Amino acid sequence: MICIGIETSCDETAVGIVEDGHTLLANMVFSSMDLHKAYGGVVPEIAARSHVEAMIPMVDQALEMAFGEDCPDPWQKIDAIAVTYGAGLGGSLLVGVMTARTLAITKNKPLYGINHVEAHTYVNFITGIKGGSMELGGKSYVFPSRQPEFPMLSLSVSGKHSQLVLFRGHFDYKVLGRVRDDAVGEAFDKVARIIGLPYPGGPNVEKASALGNRDKYKLPKANLDTKYDFSFSGLKTAVLRLAQSEIGEDFTFPSFEVAGRLSEAQKNDIAASFSRVAIETLVDKAVLAFEEFQPRSVVIAGGVAASSELRTQLSDRLPVDVQYPDMKLCTDNGAMIATLGCYKAMLGQPTADPYSLSIDPNLSM
Ligand code: KG4
Ligand code: ZN
Fold first, then answer.
1. What CATH superfamily classification does 153-323 receive?
2. For a tag site, which of 20, 276, 280, 283 has the least CB within 10 Å?
């Protein structure tokens, strides 16, 4: 089963090709991130326009990566097409979905609509590249040594969602808890903005954290009445108040002027103290869920899964050998869509109608 996956939910135009739900054949990602930097976040209209330009080149390059430039008819090798239909930005999702629908009709292939958040977890099932290589398209990859086993606990954390999910099998899962307000990645992005680091916040906060003192400031963890839900808006506000008080101002001082008055050392200490508490909040819940449900494997997924702080804390606090996906497969990509597409096709899940599949910007698991 060879599936091509198309992902355009945010600012990445991504196409991946995966065989049998475990072997990576292609992973092409074009990001319009540079176009959004000046605005401090993704501008939906700019993202959608960029998808229109990048979509077809990404499909062509992924096919070439998987089957070589001399392959006379790469589409003959594709068994199924999978596409993200939600959640995400409406205009962006439309480009991917219309492309996939058109290809499904013209190439006569079954089409699968994919939930972006569910797909993030599926990169954990990719264990290698065709031919046993560790390199694809000039980039080297690190894979888990084996596929996760069910029951599988997934901590899925990105810029738009944060949730703990218990998978009893493929397509048989229970969301144990989700974020009540800002997703953890969004908190990283907002804290980055407060301390004057460029978008995207996560990787830049991580770099600053490495130079800071993680115990310098005491920041709060949300105390919720549900066992597995998360909340990060209080922590984010606490970082703003802390930064304002560090420069001798009160809460009326404009947040966008704070960074200019913080020293490098203060910025690094704030980044480190925030990262420690934000990640600890996630890991506390993962440890609780591990104790209650005793899963056979624990996996992480989503952009924040690229955080080395998260990896360190999980490995330190869980009594299982946690396997981690390659950093390049944590942020948005087409391989995760193709992998879930493979399982849908292999396990006889219903196909989508290529004449009517519509987008669902607010889709949840
Ligand atoms: O999954 P993703 O690429 O897009 C969404 O579906 O949201 O996740 C992007 C998020 C951003 O908020 C980014 O700041 C965060 O993942 N992120 C990180 C790191 N790398 C990316 N957060 C913490 N540490 C990182 N190293
Ligand atoms: Zn994502």
1. ATPase, nucleotide binding domain (3.30.420.40)
2. 20
